[in-house]
Design goal:
mainly alpha
Length: 77
């Protein structure tokens, strides 16, 4: 293992952490707004937007996990 391997892993870790943090903050903001929308009586719009947001979260988290697994498999560790 040399310095370049550590540097790539460090940048990958920062990138994945940043994407995950932005995803969670954005989801928190969306779900907070959807709660208000649900209380106002617009159940259909809140349900559709909530399910699309949840699907997006699952999709992006799956991509992040695949990126981590790919880096680990390619790195041999």
């Amino acid at each position: 293992m040399n310095y370049q391997d550590f540097e790539s892993a460090w940048y990958l870790g920062i990138l994945i952490t940043a994407v995950f943090t932005v995803l969670m903050v954005g989801a928190w903001m969306v779900f907070r707004r959807l709660g208000a929308l649900w209380r106002e009586g617009d159940h259909l719009a809140a349900s559709v937007a909530g399910s699309v947001t949840a699907l997006t979260i699952v999709f992006v988290v799956g991509m992040l996990i695949a990126l981590l697994v790919g880096a680990i498999v390619r790195g041999g560790g």
